[in-house]
Amino acid sequence: MSEIASAALRELPLGAVRPTGWLADQLRLQAEGQTGRLPELWEDVSASSAWLGGDGEAWENGPYYLDGLVPLAFVLDDEELKERARTWVESIIASQRPNGQFGPVGNDDWWPRMVALKALTQWADATGDHRVERLLTSYFRYQVAELPDRPLTSWAKARGAENVVSVLWLHERTGEDWLLDLGRLLLTQTADWVTALTDDLPAGPMTRFSHLTHVVNTAMALKLPAIAARVDGHADASAQVVRMFERLDRLHGQVHGMFSGDEWLAGRDARRGVETCAVVELMFTLEQLVRNLGEGRYGDRLEEIAFNQLAAANDPRMLAHQFVQQANQVLVSFGHREWTFSKDEANTFGPSPVGKCCTANLHQAWPKLVRAMWMAGPKRDELTAVAYGPCRVSAQLGGSTVVLDVETSYPFDETVEVVVHIEPGLPAFGLRLRIPEWCTGATLTVAGEVQPVRPDEHGFFTVTREWTDGDRLQLVLPMQLRTVPRDGGAVGLRLGPLVMVHGLGEVWRPVPGHEGLGEWEISPRTAWHFGLWAEDPDGLESWPVTRTPVSPVPFAPESPPVVVAGRGSMIEDWQLHQNSAGPVPASPVPLTMPLQSLRLVPYGSARLRVAEMPTVSVPVPRGFPLEQ
Description:
Layout: E1 10-11, E2 17-19, H1 21-32, H2 34-41, H3 61-75, H4 79-94, H5 110-127, H6 131-146, H7 154-158, H8 160-174, H9 177-188, H10 193-196, H11 215-221, H12 224-232, H13 237-252, E3 273-275, H14 276-293, H15 297-313, E4 324-326, E5 328-329, H16 357-361, H17 365-372, E6 374-376, E7 382-385, E8 391-397, E9 400-408, E10 415-421, E11 429-434, E12 443-446, E13 449-451, E14 460-465, E15 472-476, E16 481-485, E17 491-495, E18 498-503, E19 506-510, E20 520-524, E21 530-532, E22 545-547, E23 562-570, E24 576-577, E25 580-581, E26 589-590, E27 595-602, E28 609-610, E29 616-617
């Protein structure tokens, strides 16, 4: 095998990590909702799709859907979904021509085939179907011949890293040198994203289209340095990615940790939206960054995006979704808003509010998160926790099967327990645990023995020992309520990986004559314009935190698993502006109304919320009573 920079971690086969607990409930809602029922509701992914041999849609929607259907089917071990995925895979494999090209005859765009390749490689990972390797080999030889005269353009040029991901997948299995040459060729034809997202990144809302400021392209592009380093061996990939994120955060970062884009980059204002396609693509990018660079910081951000933006982008039962969501979202309606490029219905919940891309693409996020939660490596006898949540892991170490039962309500609770099941005589191996950057004072007990927690430079702590079947590891990650500073003195709140928001009472109004499984506007039934008393003399740690069991609908607004009783005061002058919460007032705002208790809930549990809040100045002594 030719020399290539190795990924820091190795993906486990698709299906090796399966959800349990609340996470299984969430994925089952998806399977019974938008993903499972979409073909009966939407022609683009029905039998008429050109990707299935019909005369319908022939571009990205079919591959996008398959890219989520395959991992969902296998992490849930759902035979019906597997058979549906098989129909797509068989049709795509049968479509390959003698010259190596595949897919709809009437569309030769490089871009949708990049998505199809990702779906096919996942299928092969789960099933061992060697026909996928043969298809990729033939297609990549076709690319070698065609790309010099028909280079990547438009969406393909912006998203060339996605193609290289699949080239590396095949190279890991065959070791053929020409694949690395193809990878280098693709990179030369891909946009210069390092420059675009650092030195050349503009500030504020974009006013005209560019692939380099389109938010979904941006979310995909952040993986480029790490993928390129696997091909060209450049050692500064990690620093490049850090610079790209830092620049995006500085100019377009929002309170929840993601950058805006509705659908173009839109600045730091809490009224600006985040497109659902960008949410799911950034999650895949972060999974690739952890895998290739081995840095825990990207696991931190992966959890933040999944447990906040992803959860909030869909209605609680996964029947509908938004095209764009707002950090400060106090009304969901057909009213006009200040988007960079979108329509009035962009923040309604429905089957296809504005664009079809999110309808097709949202399906990959939850199941790929499950797959990425645990990976192998970096040593051969180690398993690494990338993200936490309830799951069962089955992996091969030293020729034997190791099963881990991860029992937890995380991120709604602080404790993660791992029960180890092994075969007799298995030599020592390591469990490598990610310690989030936000966490101080993590504690670890292994088989009843307390161990000191000293994470390495990448944010992981490794427990290596000769395990006994049934050994229990308990990791406690204390979650202290903390503020996130925002512009003008405003703040956000975090509790562990959760963004805590002022959640509003919600009135859901069905849209008459809706399509799909449901379509809704939402109006508030409680006041939203409050400032936070962030300088409570008793400290934020005095604010009570109440935890309850996670319900079968984990992100339902009526039953949030964790609630914080905060303190704040109404700000009468903070009002709606063009159907959104107006600009956040400069802080601190002098107190003009009584202090009140504020119910703070997880971002993902609140479709109406205020996540970025002004602060109020309260010149009162300790023990000042609250209005009840």
